[in-house]
């Protein structure tokens, strides 16, 4: 997964994702061999020469100006998070967390998590690993509440059962992970994580090669538990300024729905286990 031409790979992958008609060019014809935009089309949209774009894609020029990157971002129809990621490929902005620090939750986050013990909540580390979780998360998520979340999604045999809409979860997880690690592409822990995922999952490799990136802080997903059933949850990620790069993630259910009733059953199971332990 390691490469020195990250900018070129990103530009090439992203122009392959845009149909000519989306960018105002004639629709695909039978003789058109390129699945997305041609180099000359992207160059025209960005106001740069084809030769210069070729040098960027081939890694011959790795120091484009911010203005050039902004025009390329517009040509490639990147959203704000995509623009930030593109810039990070030229000017790394990430902080490599200290290994000892990320292995445990930041004290303030640990105190915050304790207030959500009856909710499905956890602290996510800078490599998508869960470093601490609530009792409700343990009860409902089970094995999915432990370890690296990308490795669970792509390498654990139960993941497609845990996530009924597994394809969407996998796609979103990879794009979120790429956003999370922007500017840290030379991080040894990151490379080890990518190596395990790539060796164990062809699907991960294909999704990582798409170069999708997003920084969503909320969304919805379905999660199945064999004891409680399938719950549709809304999730919110509360990012922090801690140098550990840790994030507090909270799952909630829409009041009055079957999912809310399932969540209440999870809470009641915690009460039952606590009262049983004190008898």
Written overview of the protein:
The structure is a single chain. The chain has 279 residues and is an alpha+beta fold. The protein folds into two domains: 85 residues, Orthogonal Bundle (434 Repressor (Amino-terminal Domain)), CATH 1.10.260; 180 residues, Beta-Lactamase, CATH 3.30.450.180. The protein contains 14 helices and six strands. It has a six-stranded antiparallel sheet with strand order 3-2-1-6-5-4. A hairpin with a 4-residue loop joins strand 1 and strand 2. The model has no long low-confidence stretch (mean pLDDT 89).
Task: Give me a quick take on this structure.
The protein has 279 residues and is an alpha+beta fold. The chain is built from 14 helices and 6 strands. It comes from Spelaeicoccus albus.
Radius of gyration: 22 Å
The percentage helix is: 40-55%
Q: Do you know the CATH architecture of the largest domain?
A: 2-Layer Sandwich
Number of domains: 2
CA(first)-CA(last) distance: 54 Å
Strand order across the biggest sheet?
A: 3-2-1-6-5-4
The overall average pLDDT, rounded, is 89
Counted beta strands: 6
Q: Percent of residues in beta strands? A: 5-15%
Order of helices and strands: HHHHHHHEEHEHHHHHEEEH
Largest sheet: 6 strands, antiparallel
CA-based shape: elongated
Describe the SSE topology.
Blueprint: H1 6-15, H2 39-46, H3 50-57, H4 66-75, H5 80-90, H6 99-102, H7 107-114, E1 120-124, E2 129-133, H8 135-141, E3 147-148, H9 149-155, H10 159-162, H11 166-180, H12 188-200, H13 202-208, E4 218-225, E5 229-239, E6 247-252, H14 258-278
Antiparallel strand pairs: 1-2, 1-6, 2-3, 4-5, 5-6
